[in-house]
Specification:
single chain; 366 residues; Aspartate Aminotransferase, domain 2; 2 domains; 36% helix; globular; disordered C terminus; binds pyridoxal-5'-phosphate
Length: 366
């Protein structure tokens, strides 16, 4: 008898530290500068750490995260029953797969993008269809082509990431509204993990469509990646469907308390994200001066074509600098960089001055 899954679902490569790899290289994880994750580099509000000291860890957390959901309901102007919290947006992607993708269901994923959508569709034995943005268009979405794909494939679910990881491309509200109305039998799962990094861009939840479910992460803009916290917003029936599949107590007491404290310090978030945007513009400029060409992006992370992304990453890591090799997005010639604090960006720029850049190839050859 075998316990292995004959349809083994691929594991997804993510950014972040690989502790086994660092051990092999003799590197201390605490000393590595991590440009491979897209977390707010200025860290959480100081109020978060203060709050954590008071959490009663002998008691079970609130299964329904009532206080946190109330705060989120107020923040988004929604009803309590339109919100569910999860152990990071990652858990909510899985819950969406469990609730809405069934064996044989066609599912459309707009690529290149975050790998967990495809993983969960495969896990559910859905039929995976991919629409892929073109490098020649700097990976911009093509709303007309996407509309045609939706019409042709009639997917049960369409996963889209807005702004997209790894390209930083944004879909307009108008296009989202049009797709949701024109394809009412498709559920649009809109992953807004990075939307707070883009100023003045409203959430798709404001469109109030019955077939739009929005996913949010609190690990990125509030810098709570180690605590794991995310939530989904949507019409009540969609939220109830997700709730049916969520394991009990999946959001621990620290995460709930941290989420509340982070929401209560909006000034910290605004201030740090404003500085980050400014620093991102400067970082991009300095990279260009070194002969690298950051692709257009609405967020603080962006792709750069370097010739061989894996080799580029390998050369930087012994210097204690980690970048995201984009091969797992099907982009082996690219790396993704997230803007960090000014002095940290300078360290990367300094390390790069010793490089011969493969990226000097003109962009229009891509
Ligand atoms: C697009 C996207 N969605 C969701 C996640 C997962 O976020 P969380 O840390 O909240 O689970 C990530 C993490 O990298 C991501 O890039």
């Amino acid at each position: 008898m075998s316990f292995s899954d004959p349809h083994e679902t691929d594991r997804v490569t993510h950014g972040g530290l690989d502790y086994a790899e660092l051990r092999e290289l003799g590197l201390n994880p605490d000393a590595v500068l991590d440009f491979s994750v897209n977390v707010n580099p200025f860290g959480p509000s100081p109020r978060v750490r203060e709050t954590l000291a008071w959490v009663d860890i002998a008691r079970y957390p609130d299964r329904e995260a009532l206080a946190l959901r109330e705060a989120l309901a107020e923040y988004h102007g929604l009803e309590l029953n339109q919100i569910i919290v999860g152990n990071g947006a990652a858990e909510l992607i899985w819950l969406a797969g469990l609730a809405f993708v069934h064996r044989g269901d066609p599912a459309l994923i707009l690529e290149p993008t975050f790998g967990e959508y495809a993983r969960v569709v495969n896990l559910r034995r859905g039929v995976l269809h991919r629409w892929r943005a073109r490098p020649a268009a700097d990976f911009a979405w093509d709303p007309k082509a996407i509309d045609q794909a939706l019409a042709r494939l009639r997917p049960r679910v369409c996963f889209l990431c807005n702004p997209n990881n790894p390209t930083g491309q944004v879909v307009s509200q108008a296009h989202l509204a049009h797709w949701a109305d024109a394809h009412p039998r498709t559920l649009f799962v809109v992953d807004e993990a990075y939307l707070p990094f883009v100023p003045d861009t409203p959430s798709a939840i404001n469109l109030a469509r019955p077939n739009i479910l929005v996913l949010r992460s609190m690990t990125k803009n509030y810098a709570l990646a180690g605590l794991r916290l995310g939530y989904a917003l949507g019409p009540r029936p969609l939220i109830e469907a997700l709730a049916r599949f969520r394991p009990p107590w999946s959001v621990n007491a620290f995460a709930q308390a941290a989420g509340l404290a982070a929401l209560a310090d909006e000034a910290h978030r605004q201030r740090t994200l404003t500085v980050l945007r400014r620093e991102c513009a400067m970082f991009r400029l300095q990279l260009k001066r070194l002969g690298l060409t950051p692709l257009p992006s609405a967020t603080h992370f962006f792709l750069i074509e370097v010739g061989d992304g894996a080799a580029f990453r390998r050369r930087l890591l012994p210097k204690g600098i980690l970048v995201r090799d984009a091969a797992s997005f099907g982009l082996p010639a690219y790396v993704r960089l997230a803007t960090r604090r000014p002095e940290e960006n300078q360290r990367l720029l300094q390390a790069l001055t010793t490089f011969e850049h493969a990226s000097k190839t003109p962009r229009n050859n891509v």
